[in-house]
Every structure is written in structure tokens, then in C-alpha cells.
Amino acid sequence: MQHLDLQVLDNALRWANAGETVWLCSVLTTFGSSPREPGSLLVARADGSHVGSLSGGCVEEDFLARVAAGEFTDTLEIVRYGEGADESPQVSLPCGGMLDVLVERLPADAESLTQLEVMHATLLGQRSLVRVIDLPSGRRRFTTADENGPRVAREGDELRLRLGPALRLIIAGISPVSRFCAEFAQALGFEVIVCDPREEARRDFAVSGVEVQAVLPSLFIASGACHAATAVVALTHDPRIDDLAMIEAVRTPAFYIGVMGSKRTSHKRAERLARSGGLDAADIARLHMPIGLDLDSKTPAEIALSVVADVLRVRRGKARDAL
User: Domain named XdhC- CoxI: which ranges (predicted)?
Assistant: First the structure.
């Protein structure tokens, strides 16, 4: 949930700018079953305040207790949690899993603030970076990264932690499905932005924490709103909104582009987009239409669930027939 990681960096910067030492934790590797993936972040301060997650709760409790007891005074160290871990044998993860956590102690100095500011800007930006950490010396630097690759890699004594833009969902148009889609995606850690120029549609739409733009979705997308961690879904059944959004979305690096409609409607839309929108076969092949997994969905909530599940499937690199 990269949007949760953005919240981690927001708080880390705020605390560091207030002169407080923070402990930044990164999940490095997991063995067996573990609730968070490599690269997930948590930040804490000495009073036990923390944002983010490393596990289902047991690891966080142990870590915060050890910080309060005065441990983790080194610049960085790697701690193993789970079955067979010497450091905390009382902590067990679900299904006997294990995880390694990098713990960095960041005092409120210029070097730490620079690290946190670059990480924060990367999550808000358009490009990915790799944070390279030399374990023996504790030196840290940033280097450019391809968009695809593991979030965490280790080469000898060097750790490479990939940072990229926070997951974003752009919902093109407000409909009964849009509200549930926004709520589900937000719960999964997406930054959610809803675009609709119609005042009457916006008037009845209110989901806490969701940004609403009073513009045509196509104009918002064309403004540079999409990066490689963006999904675009059109949910109105109105071609004046949906078609224009698709035409602009295929010009972006968005990893998922989908539009709601039946198979018959989707076939007609494909012909229309090719004829009037100038989309070629490769562009149309990028469009998920009909959108969502085939769950025989009937209600707006069920349709929204199928949409968000399909977005997550593509993000995880799962083929439909592998589910």
C-alpha cells in the first residue's frame, strides 16, 4: 500500500522538522506467510507514536517496546522477526512466517532531513528512484531506477530499496459504482481522485479523504496526472465522459485503464474509439472492457468490488486464468 507509505513519510518529515529523532523501518525480506510485502514502511518516535505497518501488530508492539527501552541506538541494523529469530523468540508471525526489518535511527539533522525529503518527493512524483544503503558504513545515496523491478534487493553489503509514486486511482465520472470503488481503493491504500464536471453529480458525492476535481476526466488526465502507478477507471456509461477519458489515458503510462459496459457496448466502443478517437489496435488492447473480474456482479458495490479486484490483479501481475 504505497499510499500508506506516503503517510509514513509525511509524519517522518513533520517529526524530524520538529527536532525529534525518528526510527524508520523497512521490510526487507519475508519468508512464508507475512502480512506486508518487502519495501513496506513504518516510522516511530521515542514516545511510541508511529505510522505504518510491518505485520499484523505483533512486530510493531515488540519494536515500539524495544525503542522505549532504549534499544536501536545504532545508525542502522537488521532485525529478524518470526520463527527461529534469536532477537525476539516470543514474537511469531502467522503460519510460521519470518521477516527481516531494516531499522534506521534518523536524528533531526540535515542529512536525515534530506533523505526524508527526497523519499517524500519521490512518492509524490512521476519517477522511481533506488535508495542505495551501504550496510558497513551506513552511507546512503539515491540513483535512478527503471519503472519495473523488485522493491528490495541486496547485493553483498549493499541494500537497494526502490521508491516510486504512490498508487493512484483516477475515477472518471461519478455514478453509483464510483462511491464504492473509491471506498474500496482507499481501503487498499490508493490515493483516489474523482473527476466530474457535472455539479449535480458532485453534489451527492462525498467520501472522506477522496479528492474531487470539477473538470472533465480527460482534461485532468491530459494535464499529466497519470504516472506508472496510476489506474484509470471510467464508470458512467456516458461516452462523452468515458470515451474521452480512454483516448487520453492510453497516451499515459497508467498500468490499468478500464471502462464499464457490457460486451456488446464494449465492442461498439472499440469501433468508435478506432474510428473517431484515432486509437490503433495496440491502444485498444490496453483497455480493460468490460471492466473488472467476471463475478456475475449485479449491485453497484459488487461491480465496484470486481473493478478494484481487477486493478489489484493487474498490479500484482496475475493472469486472469491464474486466479
Answer: 15-69
Closest CA to 210 of 190, 231, 229: 190
Q: What is the DSSP letter of 167?
A: P
The mean predicted confidence, pLDDT, of the chain is: 89
| Fold (topology level) of 168-322 | Rossmann fold (3.40.50)
Phi then psi dihedrals of residue 278, to 5 deg: 75, 15
DSSP 8-state secondary structure symbol assigned to residue 149:
S
Q: What is the pLDDT of residues 50-94, one digit of tens each?
A: 999 887 667 888 899 999 999 999 999 999 887 655 545 455 555
**pTM score, two decimals?**
0.73
pLDDT of residue 34: 57
Q: What is the pLDDT of residue 57?
A: 67
Residues 6+ apart with CB under 8 A from 168: 190, 191, 192, 193, 225, 226, 227, 229, 230, 231
Where do the domains of the chain lie? 2-163, 168-322
- Measured in residues, the chain has a length of 323
What's the distance, CA 282 to chain centroid?
A: 26
Q: Which long-range contacts (CB under 8 A, 24 or more apart) does 7-11 make?
A: 7/51, 7/52, 8/41, 8/42, 8/43, 8/51, 8/52, 9/41, 9/43, 9/116, 9/119, 9/120, 9/123, 10/51, 10/120, 11/43, 11/51
Contact between residue 230 and residue 168 where contact means Cβ atoms under 8 Å apart: yes
Q: Is 181 helix (H, G, I), strand (E, B) or coil?
A: helix
* pLDDT band at residue 1 using 50, 70 and 90 as cut-offs: very low
Q: What is the mean pLDDT of residues 127-135?
A: 91
